[in-house]
Amino acid sequence: MSLTTRRLRAAAVLAVPALALGLTACSVPGSTASGDEEGDATGVTDSTVTVGTHTPLTGPAAAGYSSISAAATAYFDYLNEQGGINGRTIEYVVKDDGYNPANTQTVVRELVQEDEVFAILNGLGTPTHSAVLDYLDQNEVPDLFVASGSTSWDQPEEYPWTFAFNADYVVEGKALAHYAQEELDGSTYCVLGQDDDFGEEFQQGLEAVLGADGLASVQTYSVSNQDVTAQIGAMQAAGCDTNFLATVNGFTALALGTAAQLGYQARWLSSSSGGDYPTLAGFLGEDVAPLLLEGFVSTNYLSFSPDDPWVAHFRDVNDQYNDGAPFDGNTVYGMSVAYTFAEALARAGDDPTRESLVEALESGDVVGAGIMPLAFSGDDHSAYDGVGITVVTSGVQDYVGPVYSTDSADGPVEDFTGEAVPFENEGIPQP
C-alpha cells in the first residue's frame, strides 16, 4: 500500500463531523425495582441489568473504534455464563452513532427513554459525548467511563453522574515529558497535536514539565486533512530530535511515514490514543512497521504486557466469546471497561440503584484492572492519575521503567510506589 493510500485511509477513518446542538432534558420513564423511594433502579430486573453505549460501528471512525464495544460485549458474555453479578446477567445495548454528535443525541435519547438503560457505559469520543453530557446529568443517568482523555469528564461538582476512564491528556503529556527528560538524551522538543482539546491539553501537560518555552515548534493538524508534510517539515527545520504526538493512530502512522519520506530521523513519543502497535502496524504495513516503530514510546494505564495475567485472561475470553476477533489494545480496553463496570455493580449491592452505583464508585473500593488502582472518590472522577511508559523493541510493545503518578494541574510527576491491580477469581468481581 502506498503512503498516499494510507493517508487517504487515515483521513477516511478519522474525519469528525461538526458538533450538533445539545439535547434538552426531559422526564425519563422507568421505576425502581423495589417500588419505594430509596433510589432509581431503572434498567434493573430480578434477573438482568441493562446498560447501553453510543459508539461508531459504521462511518469514518468505525475502523478505529468499533472493536471496543465488541470486546466489552464478549466480556459480559463471559461473566453471564458464570452466573452474572449478584445473580443478574448484564445486557449491553450497543448503538451506532457513526461518530456524529447529532446521531449521538438521537441514540442516547433512545437508550434512556425507550430502552430504559441503568447507565450509559463507555460512550466514545469527546465531540460526540459532549453533545449528551448535560442531558445525562440532568436526567441523573450514571454516565460511566467515557472513552476519551478530555478533562471534561472529571467535574464532579457540575456533573456528579459522569466518570472518566482514560488517563487524561494532561497527565499523559506530563508523564511523557518527564520520561524524555529523565531517560532520553534529547535536547530539542517539538509536538504535533490534534487541533482540539486533545492537542491543547496534551501540550498543557508537556509545558507543565518542559516549561512555557520548552517546545521549539508546536504543530497542529486537522482530521479532515490527510497531509502533514508541512507540519513534519517544520519540526525537522526546528532541529527537533524528540517529538511528542497528540495524535490518533491513523495520524501517528501518517506522521512517522511522512518523516521517513523526508529522511527525518527523530524519537517519537505518543499519547495512548495513538500508540497501539498492532493498530499502527495495520496502517503502516507489516513490513514497514518494525522499521519505523522500533523504539517508539507511548503511554498506557491498563494491563498491557504480553505476560500479564490480565492480558492472558482477556485473550482467552476473546478466543472463546469474541468470534475470533484480532487481539489488540482495543480488546484489552473494552474488556477492562466491562470488568470495571461489573466490579462497580457488584459493590452497588444486592438491589442496585443508580444512586448506589455512583456511591460504589465514589467509595474508592472499585479499583479496575489497570497498572494502578482507579482514583475515583467523591471529589475525583478522573479514573487513572498516572500512566506507564511502553517502548517497542523488536516488534514487541511492553512497559519499561516505573509507573508515573501525577495530576492534571501543576503537581509533580513521581514514581508510583503502589502495586498493580492483581488478577483474582478468574476475573469475576466480588462484592
Give an account of the 3D structure.
With 431 residues, this protein is α/β, with parallel strands linked by helices. It has two domains: 3-167 and 307-384, Rossmann fold; 169-300 and 388-415, 3-Layer(aba) Sandwich (Rossmann fold). The protein has helices at 3-14, 62-81, 101-114, 126-130, 133-138, 169-183, 197-210, 229-237, 249-261, 277-284, 289-292, 309-321, 329-347, 354-362, and strands at residues 48-55, 89-96, 120-121, 143-146, 162-164, 189-194, 217-221, 242-246, 267-270, 297-300, 386-393, 396-405, 414-415. An eight-stranded mixed beta sheet has the order 7-6-8-9-10-11-12-13, with helices on both faces. Strands 3-4-5 form a three-stranded parallel beta sheet. It has a two-stranded parallel sheet with strand order 1-2. α2 links the parallel β1 and β2. It is globular, with a radius of gyration of 21 Å.
